[in-house]
Batch of 3 targets.
Target 1
Amino acid sequence: MTATDTGIIINNTDIYTTAVKKGQYPDTGLPEVAFVGKSNVGKSSLINAMLGRKRLARTSGTPGKTRTINFFHVEHKLYFADLPGYGYARISRSESEKWGEMVEGYLQDRPELKRIFLLVDIRHEPGNHDKMLYEWCQHYNLPFTLIATKSDKLKRSQIQKHTAMIRRAFGAAEPPVAFSSETREGRDKIWELILDSCGIDML
Ligand code: GTP
Ligand code: MG
């Protein structure tokens, strides 16, 4: 694997472990980053774009595609954890409780977790669930970064206005990183944060 001027190229991404509870998470001790956010916000698409793969993480236009925690082993050095989005839980209360247990259970007890990426759609005001996730990250004292997804859906001139709106809505110190899995805007910045957080010089 090499880091070049044109960005990181991934050669080795293994298929993943699927988990719904502790005990099923990978136990190699390797560092890990996680991607959370509402259903359909683009978590699985972002993982594919980061890894330069089309269909490694399964995506769908219908919210609720990812329903388990899926771990992707990257270059034998770290894991990406793709978390189920809230929102599919509209289906039933018990589904909603299951989601809460699965996601909060993971966030509160995972020493390998070095950074959380909290994804919100660049076009919309963050909702209550986004704010709840933001508060969980603060509460459990986890390093986290906001990402504003689907930046290709806005005109260039609108992007800064929207990232400023999202920063204000969370009361965050920094605006979110604008990202698009179509144009790959933001990919290098996110890789930099991942490698830094995991203490990896080069993949
Ligand atoms: P769940 O697994 O349901 O939680 O959703 P998710 O957050 O993993 O979303 P997913 O990656 O499956 O993407 C949802 C839809 O948004 C798909 O139709 C994607 O093609 C689309 N999408 C994701 N990212 C982008 C993006 O950057 N730009 C555009 N235009 N569409 C995107
Ligand atoms: Mg998904």
Target 2
Amino acid sequence: MNKTIFSGVQPSGNLHLGNYLGALKNWVALQNQYRCIFCVVDYHAITLKQDPKVLRSKILEIAKLYLAAGINPETAIIFQQSQVSAHTELAWILNTITKTAELQRMTQFKDKAKENKENINMGLFDYPVLMAADILLYNTDLVPVGDDQSQHVELTRVLARRFNSRFKDVFKLPEVYIQKQGARVMGLDDPRKKMSKSASSEFNYVALLDKPAMARKKIMKAVTDSGSEIKFDLRKKPALANLLAIYSLLANVSVQELEARYNGHGYGELKKDLAEVVAKFLAEFQHRFSGFDDQFINNILEQGRQKASAIAAETLTKVKEAIGVA
Ligand code: TRP
């Protein structure tokens, strides 16, 4: 039996090149080796304020982005979290074995609470428990996420172990799956921090749905380091290293090859070429994206809901029996 991979993306903000190179592109490579389940985690998104109309369209947008990136709905399960009520049911049950002190320690909660002082709601606090439910319902082996989420996966393991020893051996212990390639695409305006859709300047990132002309502009405006030699050096030339990494991943050429190709040329030339590579990638990506209509996406999500529900229901039944409510 193949191992199971589970991951999710929130339908909020704009997905960018960092999300594509750090997550989606790698998921595509995994889908033939593993049973893959990719969720649109809308109940996580509402822990911050969302406009209902925007949320609805973002849910479809994320599913379309999955497909445009190359995820195959015939092999992978793509579904919307809120359509499988086992997620919130299991989250409630897991709440009863989660200590508030454990949630208080979560760095993402602390960060988000600081940024949203006027809306520190229970959902935001409980976010990691819902995420644990997402993962545990599907007997997940591996969870491909960025390092900012590894604390949540660690908590998931703690809760699974606690449940298994207190009640019955129901849950499989999942592991974080750390990706080797492209895991950390950095901000174009600040290579010390990860590319982020919530960055203060939109020149931090290239959104997957940015117009190619806009993307070109953003690449040309990216900060560079001092010196002029095109050499990959994370410590001395972090901005250049980031551009080389993006170039290498999008054009499928090694960084060494790029260094050789740009030997004796300046940063300006590299940026101009990278701007073209990015613009071309986006044009093709967006062409695929716009080829999916809402009806088609709704069908995919409905098929996903059916497959996901069947797996989730089985786990939830075992959980209910173990705790004595069924
Ligand atoms: N918290 C994750 C993020 O913001 C999204 C997510 C929710 C998730 N549930 C998940 C990721 C389960 C992996 C597995 O990136």
Target 3
Amino acid sequence: MVTGVMKSGEIINKAPVVTGLVNYEQAGKEFSWEAVKKELFLPDNPAKKANIAYEAIDKHAQSWRKNKVALYWEGPDGTRQKYTFLELKNLSDKCANMLRSIGVKKGDRVFIFLPRLPELYISIIAIAKLGAIAGPMFSAFGPDAVRDRLQNSEAKVLITTQELKERVDTVLWELPKLERIVLVDYRKEYELEEKDVCYATLMKDASDKFEAVGLELEDPLYILYTSGTTGKSKGITHVHYDMISYYITTKWVLDLRDEDIYWCTADPGWVTGTVYGLWGPWLNGVSSYIYDGRFDAAKWYEIIQTYKITVWYTAPTALRMLMKAGDDLIKKYDLTSLRYICSVGEPLNPEVIRWGVKVYQLPIHDTWWQTETGAIMIANYPCLPIKPGSMGKPFPGTKAAIIDGKGNELPAGQHGLLALQPGWPSMLRAVWGDEKRFREYFSINGWYATGDTAYKDEDGYFWFVGRADDVINTSGHRVGPFEVESALLEHRAVAEAGVIGKPDVERGEIIKAFVVLREGFAISKALEEEIKVFIKHRLAAHAYPREIEFCGNLPKTRSGKIMRRLLKARDLGLPTGDISTLED
Ligand code: PRX
């Protein structure tokens, strides 16, 4: 509950809290991950052998929560389903047996290319039960993005739909390691191809008794691919031990309690949807709502009203779009069930927080983390005042710092690199198949370097400044310029391409491409459109350049590297800085 909004040196104070994280300072002093482990695991589980699926689902299915709804699901056509913890246990047991029947073993990579269907969630649990490694992929990905992930991970099985499989058909010949394709929506009129199997038929024959495989806590759980400045996207690999972080951050940052109905709007193809869409709430035995539909302001408010959502985890772009949809729309709905709102993925503008206080009577709590950190690392907590525009304070037991290029900590107020001291449970364990890129994260004197720049104020609050590299953040989606440039070069008309993030009021940044055409191609609106559609279809709907500028040449270093920094400075009319390495 908001108790007051001070405009000067703006602070949003809140009433004292009595559950969850009650006292931030004290929790920090007393914190130990061992204690969290003890709290999460049943006393008779020594945690030598464990499985996140047991802790998140099976344990509750054997407790008083067995008939509690774990998953409320709604499809784009309004179809509604719900699953109790016991039902999810039985279905994921069946699914684990089904996957075992087609040869999936511990350590195998099983990739999932599905809309947010219940089968997506059931498969993720089943894969964990088997000790196999899940690779959730966003359903808007194009053939190249899917191929790169399946190729790099050497995935053995792909779970998808008939419609999405069509998108993969063109690249199947490049995936010799892929043995089986499980179709969840298979209908008789389709002819199954060589590798195809039908989810429903196999599920029908599978037993619903499966004992989650006892794993070492360091056994891998999932791989999510994310972009850097150079090269293809990196397979960020997480392990079962992550659950310690998921459990306690969900409890203390998202403030989830048994009586909550929680809605995380992210897709499991992004880390937020995997960690806080399913594992975090279920480790805490909380009911999670999933909507498999597109953004629509009225629909979103209707969801909150209908399901009486109490805790909502969403993103700044969505909040900005809701703000744009207008306050009159809000008056049509009863949103009084909401008690706590959090945001992630991009800078959360102070005006959005002020607006939240006005229209929802609730402050929005920013949280900062990354695919690599596996869990929330810096946040605004229920028990602390909010400084609008700040990401908040490090999670208890976590050391975050602002450092220079040598790893020296910088004093309050000074801009520098945002770094974390390694040692939290959900830190990435590998970049799949690429030890060198994994080690790069720790190359500044042993710190984990986040790639972000930020500063800390006198009160220990962290403020986001930007990326230290060229990575683009568009609507909270991380996009590597190199990947877009590579895809652009595959278009027949493109000779050279340079890609930058351009500030945008709604999306944070949009992707802008500077393109040099090949001989024989003329600049036209039609060609521009063709290139946009080409990228949308190959890479992903969110990764296409909304703006294309045709130019005669691109600024390059003498070694031939495109100077994106210079493209950006020129585009925004900013000082161009040091251009001594420029080609001519
Ligand atoms: O630049 C930061 C931005 O998103 C990056 C991480 O992206 P990704 O791995 O896709 O994970 C996003 C969701 C966990 C960060 O390096 N970012 C994330 N949260 C915030 C943010 N930027 C500003 N404020 C945030 N709260």
